[in-house]
Design goal:
Blueprint: H1 3-22, H2 25-47, H3 52-65, H4 72-93, H5 103-123, E1 126-127, E2 130-131, H6 133-157, E3 161-163, E4 167-171, H7 172-192, H8 198-226, H9 241-265
Antiparallel strand pairs: 1-2, 3-4
Helix pairs in contact: 1-2, 2-3, 2-5, 3-5, 4-5, 4-8, 4-9, 5-9, 6-7, 6-8, 7-8, 8-9
Length: 266
């Protein structure tokens, strides 16, 4: 089959499954549980971490924390831990060395970069008034708009490399274009799709464009250290689950924080 057609069909199937499952709370939780296990599989391959204990911990933690409402204090603990790990990941991104991570860092990133962010992602559409799938679907759309327009703008007018040492194809022009188009998409969705202000969705779009791109670069550094092009091969033409979800995984805790602040002040 033609490679372009294979990539297109694989991408369409991914989008259909993701959106369809997100429409219903239980299917959303089940899908993200499966995606978590695939992400753990790929992460352990990238870091040479033995698989058994991470898989057991992922199943137990996700089953206990994702399917149940958590105390406020536990939510804030998980969020704080993840945000601190995100800061550590950003520092790791800008380190000049491409040496393998220490065993301790591999464990920290397993918890704070993979496992807990997946759990927090499941909490984002769980609003006080109930499960609101449009919130997650909106985030998916913003990520796809950002990625697509960053590619289009970068391909068209991109001249200046964003971070060539880690991702040679990304340009500053593409990065700016992705952020701008994501914000425009956020305003449009807020106007016609969401019962929330354009300001909130502009902030989320900005987060997706900036923080999501950082997440993409961090995953690229993991792959560069491991000496591989893709995190996996589950999606023909697209790579692995981490290749598809790196932006969402990294930006998710920040969006969760934004909603915690909104709930507190409202």
């Amino acid at each position: 089959m033609n490679e372009t057609l294979t990539r297109a069909l694989s991408g369409v199937l991914y989008v259909v499954v993701l959106i369809s499952a997100t429409l219903f709370h239980q299917s959303f939780l089940i899908l993200f549980g499966l995606l978590l296990l695939l992400a753990v599989h790929e992460y352990t391959n990238l870091t040479q971490l033995p698989k058994t204990i991470p898989f057991i911990l992922s199943i137990l933690s996700y089953s206990l924390l994702a399917f149940n409402e958590l105390p406020v204090a536990l939510n804030w603990f998980l969020l704080t831990f993840t945000l601190l790990t995100s800061l550590k990941a950003i520092l790791f991104l800008f380190e000049q060395s491409n040496e393998p991570l220490s065993k301790l860092d591999i464990q920290i990133f397993f918890w704070g970069y993979i496992l807990v962010p997946f759990i927090l992602l499941t909490k984002i559409p769980q609003r006080p008034e109930g499960f609101i799938p449009s919130v997650m679907i909106g985030i998916y759309i913003l990520v796809w708009v950002n990625d697509t327009m960053a590619y289009v703008v970068g391909k068209s007018i991109g001249k200046n490399k964003l971070y060539e040492r880690i991702s040679p194809k990304k340009t500053i022009e593409g990065f700016i274009g992705g952020v701008v188009f994501a914000i425009v998409a956020g305003i449009i969705m807020a106007t016609f799709y969401f019962d929330q202000s354009a300001m909130i969705w502009s902030i989320i779009a900005f987060m997706v464009g900036v923080i999501g791109t950082i997440g993409d670069l961090i995953e690229s550094k993991f792959k560069r250290i491991a000496g591989v092009k893709d995190s996996g091969n589950i999606m023909p033409g697209h790579g692995g689950i981490l290749d598809r979800l790196d932006s969402i995984i990294f930006v998710g805790p920040f969006v969760f924080l934004l909603y915690q602040i909104i709930n507190y002040v409202s």
